[in-house]
Structure formats: C-alpha cells, structure tokens
Amino acid sequence: MKTYILPSLKLTVVLIIICAAMYPLLIAGVAKMTPGGGDGVTISLDGKVVGFENIGQKFTDAKYFWGRPSAVDYNASGSCGSNKGPSNPDYLAVVQARIDTFMVHHPGISKSQIPAEMVTASGSGLDPNISVNAAKVQVKRVATNRSISEAILNELIVECTETAFLGLLGPEKINVLKLNIKLDQLK
Amino acid sequence: MNSEITGVIVMFIITVLLAIPLGKYIADVFKGEKTILDFMAPVERFVYRICDIDITKEMNWKQHMLAMLAMNMLWFVYAFVMLISQGSLFLNPDGNPSMTPDLSFNTAISFMVNCNLQHYSGESGLTYLTQLAVITFLQFVSAATGIAALIVVFNAMREKVTDQLGNFFDIFTKTITRILLPISIIIAIILAFNGSPASFEGKDTITTLQGDTVQVSRGPAAGMIAIKHLGTNGGGWFGVNSAHPLENPNYFTNMVEMIAQVLIPLAMIFALGYFLNRKRLSWIIFGVMTAGMLTFLIPTMVSEINGNPAISEMGIDQRSGSMEGKEVRFGAAASAYWSIVTTIISTGSVNSMHDSSMPVSGAMQMLGMMTNAFYGGCGVGILNYYVFIIIAVFISGLMVGRTPEFLGRKIEAREMKIASIVALLHPFLILSGTALASWTIVNHPDANWSVHPSNWLNNPGYHGFSEMLYEFTSAAANNGSGFEGLGDNNIFWNITTGLVLIFGRFLPIIGPVAIAGILARKKYIPESSGTLRTDTATFGFMTYAVIMILAALAFFPALALGPLAEYFSLYN
Asked: Which residues from chain B sit within 8 angstroms of residue A30, using beta carbons?
C-alpha cells in the first residue's frame, strides 16, 4: 500500500486543481457569453427585475393566472417536492381540498376540467409552467377580475404557448410568469 | 401524450447512436491507438512526471486494487475534513454552516463511492467550495475509478496469459483527460447556454410580479450538472436535483442530461466488443440489458401516464398523468423514463420525486437497483453483469454437462465462490439494513437522535416501509436516489447507509477484478465445437433469467410488504 500512497496523494492534488478549479472556471468564463451571463436569466417589466425566467412564482391574486401548488411556497432559496405517496390518506385529503378551493374560485367550471397539475405539488416546488388547459380553465376568472374580454385572454394564451421541443418531442406548456407579465402589459 | 412518448424513443435512439462511436473511441484510447484527443498526451506526461508515476510499470490485479484503495482512502479523509469545516472556509457567499460529523461521514463516503445519497439539500448544506472541490472533484474521480477497474478486467479478458494488466494510475488518469473532462465541457456549455447558472454569485433577492420577496439560490452549477450525469454519480447542485428549473431548464436539457447519463454505460458495452474484437458478445450484452430496461420501463410508463386512481376518483382531468412530484416541462412519460434509467444506471439523479411515484413504478425503480446490472453505473455496471455471466456460465455448464468456460478460460470453484459472495452481498445489505431500521422504529420510536425514529417516515403504512427499503436499496446499489420523504439526516441513517455504501462499492469492484485476474493467468483454450458459446441469444436469455430469478428470490417478500401491498390497496 505504501508505494501507492505518495503518487496517489500527488495525483489527487493535481486532479483537484484540474477538475475543481480549472474546469468550473472555464465553464464560468464561457457562460459570460450566455444570456444572463451565467447568473441565471431574469425577466424585467418596466426596467425592474420581476423574476427569473425559469423559476416559478406564487400567484394568489385573482387578477393573475395561477401556477401549481408548491411544497416550498415558491421560495427558491430552497427546493422540495411534497414526497407524499399516492395512497397517503392525508395527502389525498389535501388534493380534495385543493379541488374544492379551485371550484370555489372558478364558478361555472366542472371538475373534469381541472387538470391534475393544478392540484398536485410539483417536484421542485418551483415549476414555472402549467399546461394549456390549466390556463384556459382560469380564463373566465381572470377576465372577470380584470374586466377584459375572454377572447383577448385566449389570444394571449395562444401567444404564450410553448410548443413541444422541435414541434415533436415532449409536452406543450405555458410559462405562468411570462403570461402574467403580458397580462400586466395589456393595460 | 404522443409527443411525450416520441420524446422518450428519440432520446434512447440518439443515445445508442452516440454510444457506438464513443465505445470505439474508448477502446482505441486503452488499446493505445491513435485518437483525436492525442494532443492531451503532453499534459498526461506532465502529470505523471510531477506525480512520480512510472506508467511502464504494469500491475497485477492485486496491485491495481491496492492503488485504487489508496486513492479512495485519501479522498475520504480529504472530503470528510473539508465538509466538517466548510462553514469557516472561503467561497461561501450564502454563509452555509459546516456539516455535522455523521453527515460529513455519510456525504464523504457517498460521493467517494460514486453515489449521491444526499442527506442534505445543496442550497443550504454545502458551500460553493465544497460543491466544487469535494463533490465535483469526486464525481470525476469516482466515475474514473469504476471505468478504470473495468478496463483492468478488459485487459484480463484478452487471449494473452499474463498477470500484467496495465498501470492503474495511467488508465485512471486517461479516463479523466480523454473521456470525462472533454465530454463534460461540451455538456456544461450546452447547459449554460440553456439557462443553468455557472457564475460564483450568491443568492439573489427579488420582488416578484405579485410583490412577494423571495430568494433564488444559484452558483457555478453547470459544470457539476454535466459530470454528475456523464459520470453516473447523480448528485445534484440543488436539493431537488434535476427537477430544479435551474438544474434542468427545459425539455432539451432534459434530453441532454438523460443521454449523458446513459452514454458511458452503453459505450462501455460497445468498447468491450471493440477492445476484445468480440462485437457479437457486446451486442448480446446490449440486448439483454435493453430487455432488462424495458421490463422495468414499460410498467412504469403505463402506470405514470395513467395517473393516480385515487385522484381519478375525485373526478378531475388526469390526462397529463400522475403529476404529483413531477414538472410540467418534462411530463409524465419522460419523468417515468428518467426514473427507470437513473435506477438501473446507479446515477440516482432525479427529475421527479420518486416518493410520489405510483406503486408499480416504485417497485420497478427498486428492482432497477436490486438487479443493478442493466447498463449499470460507469464501469461498475458491466462488472456487476460480469458476475452474473460467471454464474450463468457455471449453471448452464452444469445443465448441458460441459466444462464451464468464459472467453477461453475455465471457471472453477474459486471464481464461483467470489461471484456468489458478490451476488449475495447485495440482498444481504439491503434486507438486513431495512430489517434493522424497521426494528428500530418499532422498538425505539423515541431514540434521542436528531430525527426521532417515530418521525422518520413521511407516509404511513406500506409506503412508509417502501421509504426505508428504497433507502437501503439505493445505498447498496450506490445509486443515491431516494424516497426523499424519509427523515434520513440523523446518526442512524448516516452511519448505517454509510457502511452499506462502502461494502456495496468495493466488494463488487474487487470481486470481478479478482475473478478476471485469476482467469487471466489460466491457460487460454481456443473455442471449439465443445465450447458453450456465450455470444448467443440462448446464453443471453440464460443470463437474463439468472439476474431476474436471483432478484425475485431475494426481494419478492420485501417488495410484497411495500409497493405491491400499496398497489393492491390502491387499485382494488
């Protein structure tokens, strides 16, 4: 063993320099050329930063489209899912309560219109997206609260729909923050 | 939903198409043939010179293992010291504290053995210094350890009768300079351009559109995300790993990370074919492993896409599948695919929370780790599979009354003993660990640890048992994913899983290397009509059956208490 310790030690030091210093510095350097410069991509409204493009935000105001339930209340200093198992009775009661709340805030819709993601917590607690159906089911509420026509909102949803990757792969989705920024810009 | 399934198929096809040429490249590197990265040679020579390494000195299998253990021991001490003192070191913009001794113990072992059993959350549990100098560093070297051990076995499988199997330091260093580092750089740059943070800025504070004040964690993550997948380590920068929108910003990055984690395990299969000039054998291995993957993948995709029956009963629209713990940008299908790939491959990174998977998916994820040989981790996957080949050769030899041989070498009692010990160790670690945890919960619910045993489980009933079973399975398989509801940051889990990790890493590496080393000294018997051929579909099926039957015999009772019981309670 002794014959191997010294070369192992030296090799370890050299590799720490290569893998833990030179490599991340190289990537940080290249990332300066990316949108956001490696600090994360932010979005501004009227010159003020209102969020990170990819980080979901809490929307509870009736004037906005809402995102998904979050186990960390959308505070991105941490991240967490609910880690509730599918048969957990407490968890199922929470889902039922979310459905009931959703129905109260969206009179006139039927339960079968509520997409699953609106009543289940995301994996990260920071999911920035909802499905197109999840936006459509909220149109009436937002329209009433903003006193604008549903047609304008439906157009906005079409405009904000991000198609599947290359039009072929993966789900369609809507970034809730971007949609709500468009909404605020309507005025 | 169709576009989601297409996405999964396309991801797999691209991976295979990339793995074949990469396999040829890896074989060329270790055969010493010309490759496009030969410009790294002066760098390597410089490293060898300052480290006093004489690469012309070849080693036998025991010397290889000693060199490996010497390095690993140093890394453990180094990582432990860093983690326990990180709070008072530099590069800590968020002011995170040092780790407790038991958590440092667990974390240092976990990453040394290429696992990522993270009993902490990256945002608050590590500093930028330890994320890079401990975690990222270990993600490179632990992956290289596995690959280098496999290359030693490749060397031993050649027709030459010898005990000189190359120089471990040489193979190990080239794995980093020729394979891991260059590909990681490419992947990290792709991730950075798609929005993964890469700078050294600390947490940002923002006021949201609605007027709330929140903080956003970030840091030099892109480089680590690249190697965590390429090296099949899986340890995430952020707590929720690749479910985090900065760690895995969109469907494209999800594809890149997915392809990256399967790439080397697949490429090593093809490398074996090119290295030994036995392409048929590598296609048979590829076929068996793919069949194994599909056995676990199909039930998982079906149950995730169909959603939770208890939620369907509530009358809502579950067309998007089971979405608890999943992200909209990936969808149910790609999350299901990831959950199986990450468990068969010992990556352990996640893009959805496995604790919230359907019961069948949970069972399949656990089976992926219980078999631990379908593709498998960097290098170690084929080493595990090699053990099963030895057992399959021996059993089929007995069945047809021929001397058991593999690649022209007789398999005898000594090799069989080693293979059996390695194969039996895995269920022993998992089942005895789970039994101990269950016993503790029942008999010492109020033990005064930082999480009382009565509070360990995040879910009641069968699912709670699954949380413990999953944790030990993950530790023994060096996987690292978890049913994360488990309250595992306390002395019981940190120490027990830490020990399981060590046994689950080194015996399955030393065992196969020992077998190969012993076989390499035996006389080479050219194949004849009397030889049991191992590169046929029949033998492939035999290996598949051996793996599945061993797993079923060992784990059926435990799975019946956990996910299977949950399944029948949910779908009655």
From this structure: 189, 192, 198
Q: Does A93 touch chain B (CB under 8 A)?
A: no
**ipTM metric:** 0.95
Asked if the model's pLDDT at residue B217 lies above 90, the reply is: yes
**For residue B69, what is the nearest residue in chain A, using CA coordinates?**
A1
Q: Which two tokens stand for residue A95?
A: 């889902």
- % of chain B residues with pLDDT over 70: 100
Closest-CA residue of chain B to A120: B324
Which chain B residues are closer than 8 Å to A168 by Cβ? 3, 6-7, 10
Chain B partners of A19 at a C-beta cutoff of 8 Å? 136-137, 140-141, 176, 181, 227
- Interface test mutation site (partner A, options B316, B462, B465, max chain A beta carbons within 10 A): B316
- The end-to-end CA distance of chain A, in Å, is 74
Residue where the block lists tokens 């093809």: B270
Q: What is the pLDDT of residues B347-375, one digit of tens each?
A: 999 999 999 999 999 999 999 999 999 99
Contacts of A63 (CB under 8 A, 6+ apart): A142, A145, A146, A183
CA B391, CA B395: separation in Å to the nearest integer?
A: 6
Task: Give yes or no for A65 touching B (CB within 8 A).
Answer: no
Question: Which sequence spans correspond to the domains of chain B?
Answer: 2-207+214-570
Q: Which residue of A has its CA nearest to B223?
A: A24
Burial class (CB within 10 angstroms; exposed 0-12, middle 13-18, buried 19+) of A96: middle
CB pairs under 8 A between A and B: 384
Q: Which three-class secondary structure state does DSSP give residue A72?
A: coil
B78, B84, B88, B90: CA torsion to nearest 10: 40
Mean pLDDT along residues B407-435? 95
B486: nearest Cα among B497, B476, B477: B497
From CA B297, how far away is CA B339, in angstroms rounded? 9
Question: In terms of C-beta density within 10 A (0-12 exposed, 13-18 middle, 19 or more buried), how is residue B216 classed?
Answer: buried
- Least Cα separation, residue B266 to chain A (angstroms): 23
Beta bridge partners of residue A130, listed in sequence order:
A174
Q: Are residues A15 and B51 in contact, defined by beta-carbon separation less than 8 angstroms? A: no
Contact list in A for residue B206 (CB cut-off 8 A) is: 42, 49-52
Q: Do B195 and A36 touch (CB under 8 A)?
A: yes
Residue B236 in tokens: 């995430």
Q: CA-CA distance, B203 to B216, in Å (whole number)?
A: 5
Chain A residues near residue B51 by CB distance under 8 angstroms: 7, 10-11, 14
Q: Beta strand pairing status for B204-207 and B213-216?
A: antiparallel
Is residue B535 within 8 A of residue B284, CB to CB? The reply is yes
pLDDT confidence bin for B159, thresholds 50/70/90: confident
- The partner residues of A115 in beta bridges, in order of sequence, read B317
